[in-house]
Specification:
The chain is an alpha+beta fold. The protein has 5 domains: 95 residues, GIY-YIG endonuclease (3-Layer(aba) Sandwich); 102 residues, no CATH class; 108 residues, 2-Layer Sandwich (Alpha-Beta Plaits), CATH 3.30.70; 160 residues, Nucleotidyltransferase, domain 5; 51 residues, DNA polymerase, domain 1 (Orthogonal Bundle), CATH 1.10.150. It contains 20 helices and 19 strands. The strands form 4 sheets. Strands 12, 13, 14, 15, 16, 17, 18 and 19 form an 8-stranded mixed β-sheet that branches. α9 runs antiparallel to α10. The longest helix is centred in the last third of the chain and has 33 residues. It starts with a helix and ends with a helix.
Length: 600
């Protein structure tokens, strides 16, 4: 493969994510490191635009023999990582960025009733430091968020138990304006204060989902109490939270000289990502691919990758973070499988990189050979779901009703792992009274496959039932009546934990949440739910329209629809004046509606 074709293939496979890209020359030496908000757009720009305007850039592009990248959470993370890599390798075409010590940190002071503040001095006094933040504005936004959520002291008083009991202090203005609960005079216990500090640690560690959930709960309570000004302030904070990550996932000052490895494998290939962390910063990142020859285990492949990559990158770290226990012992090396905290966060970041690497390889493969890509997915589904044939034709069923009223069902169809919308079908439940999902499922399965047999259509290779053991058993009743049990595979998927149920087996199968097989099943199930709900709402709306307005003698469905379109609700129609109704549907019908509601 020619150099230009090789580089173009790499550029096409780049993700649309923040990260750092590295250019290598023919000798494998890093010649440039850059950061990007969107890796694909930024790197593509080097090869798409006319480089004649910049002679140095033109020379750089001519020397690029290979491109590698590291994905991070935000553009700010990319800036910090770019800084670390440039200082580590000092590439020829890079300028030297500012030193990390010029960046600010958030400090939670090691003291009784800890203060939370910004600092540029990292002092090893037992205090907790989070950052560094490449943007001071961003850091102050985090601190402002904390200030609005929690009431903390900002004084530097020595709040020992003895001093508080001796009543050496008095409440200050911060207490009177509601910014502090006055622990200095014993009006807030140390236990309550420390509980607040625990929540603040979660915020500065970047637990965005937890903070967003908390803010949304506060917003809901404020709206319920009709405190709309407060609700608006909270909403603004939620909007602010959506614009940033509160802590760089690249840096953690508590972690020093650690290697991080993660692995992802399928039937034919395995991918291993390596991150090297020194003095709390990622300074190296690399992903390798193994093509399986035999049925090697993940433990074997990861052990091989650790030995290979540590030798290649001359790593002598005494601590290695891995996703599971390693059977092979490495002299003077401790393997750690983290369950929580910063080390767990690093492992998740490594896994995210290997997932993106594999996804982009698959995407590239699908662009070059779509049929091969589809066949690979179907082969994996066949293996995961214990099928005898590749499920090239899948049909999925879902019921929908409202308190037993307007029962309907939907069938969605996937062919070659893609939706075939022209084959979707709606069903109105005909024989079942009341909210009976099992009986409804039995009816639609019987009707569907009775027709398939009568019209001599082809059967699917897989039937998916939206529901657990009960719905699956009901569907099997119909297959038995039609003599189809064993001739077509059928499974049920329960929503709560995404359990996969098989006929005659009470123990469900749990597929990996990242499994392509599970994603296909979830997609067709979600399509059936969406398709069924749409039909159910349409039927329900028509039923509501009929009972509310068309019982008025002389008012047709068309006139009723005009009224609803104009007045938006039956309540507004009841309260409308006669001339307003006449204007909408004419004098005769308008007066009929007006007289009807006036008499009731």
């Amino acid at each position: 493969m020619e150099k230009s074709e090789y580089i173009n293939n790499i550029v096409r496979a780049l993700p649309d994510n923040p990260g750092v890209y590295q250019y290598f020359d023919i000798e494998g030496k890093i010649i440039y490191v850059g950061k990007a908000k969107n890796l694909k757009k930024r790197v593509s720009s080097y090869f798409n635009k006319d480089q004649s305007e910049n002679g140095k850039t033109q020379i750089l592009v001519r020397k690029i023999a290979d491109i590698k990248f590291i994905i991070v959470d935000t553009e700010l993370d990319a800036l910090l990582l770019e800084n670390n890599l440039i200082k580590k390798y000092q590439p020829r075409y890079n300028v030297l960025l500012k030193d990390d010590k010029t960046y600010p940190w958030i400090c939670i002071k090691n003291e009784r009733f800890p203060r939370v503040f910004s600092t540029r001095n990292f002092i090893k006094d037992g205090s907790s430091y989070f950052g560094p933040y490449a943007s001071g504005k961003l850091m102050h936004t985090v601190l402002d968020l904390i200030k609005h959520l929690f009431k903390l002291r900002n004084c530097n008083l020595n709040l020992t138990d003895e001093n508080i009991k001796a009543k050496k202090f008095k409440v200050c203005l911060e207490y009177h304006i509601g910014n502090c609960k006055a622990p200095c005079v014993g009006r807030e216990s140390e236990e309550d204060y420390n509980e607040t500090i625990v929540n603040i640690r979660e915020i500065v560690k970047g637990n965005i989902n937890s903070v967003s959930k908390h803010l949304k709960e506060l917003l809901k309570k404020a709206v319920e109490k009709m405190e709309f000004e407060n609700a608006q302030l909270i909403k603004e904070k939620i909007d602010l939270l959506d614009t940033f990550q509160s802590k760089s996932t690249v840096v953690s000052p508590t972690i020093n000289n650690v290697d991080v490895f993660s692995i992802l494998s399928d039937e034919k290939n395995a991918y291993v990502n390596f991150l090297k962390v020194v003095n709390g910063s990622i300074i190296q990142g690399h992903t390798v691919e193994f093509k399986k020859k035999l049925d090697e285990s993940n433990d074997e492949l990861l052990t091989l990758a650790i030995a290979e990559l540590r030798e290649r990158f001359n790593s002598d770290s005494k601590e290695i973070i891995v996703p599971f226990e390693i059977e092979t012992e490495f002299p003077e090396v401790e393997f750690i499988v983290p369950q929580r905290g910063d080390k767990k966060h690093l492992l998740e970041l490594s896994l995210r990189n290997v997932e993106y690497y594999r996804r982009e390889k698959i995407k590239q493969e699908s662009m070059v050979d779509p049929e091969r890509h589809t066949k690979r997915i179907l082969e994996q589904m066949k293996k995961d779901l214990r099928l005898t044939k590749e499920p090239r034709h899948i049909e999925c069923f879902d019921n929908s009703n409202f308190q037993g009223a307007y029962p309907v069902a939907a069938m969605t169809v996937f062919k070659d792992a893609k939706p075939s919308k022209k084959d979707y079908r709606h069903f109105n439940i005909k024989t079942v009274e009341g909210p009976d999902d099992f009986a409804s499922m039995e009816e639609i399965i019987y009707r569907r496959y009775k027709r398939v047999l009568d019209e001599k259509q082809s059967l699917p290779q897989l039937i998916v039932i939206d529901g657990g053991k009960g719905q699956l058993s009901a569907a099997l009743e119909s297959l038995d009546k039609l003599g189809l049990r064993g001739k077509v595979a059928i499974i049920g998927i329960a929503k709560r934990l995404e359990e996969i149920y098989f006929p005659g087996d009470s123990i469900p199968l749990y597929l990996d949440k990242r499994s392509e097989s599970l994603k296909i099943i979830q997609q067709i199930r979600d399509e059936a739910h969406r398709f069924g709900i749409t039909h159910h709402r349409s039927k329900r709306d028509k039923g509501t329209l009929k009972t509310e307005l068309t019982e008025i003698k002389g008012i047709s469905d068309t006139s009723a629809q005009k009224l609803l379109s104009h007045f938006k609700s039956v309540k507004n129609i009841k309260e409308a004046k006669a001339d307003e109704l006449v204007e909408s549907i004419g004098k005769s019908k308008g007066n009929l509606v007006f007289e009807f509601y006036r008499e009731r």
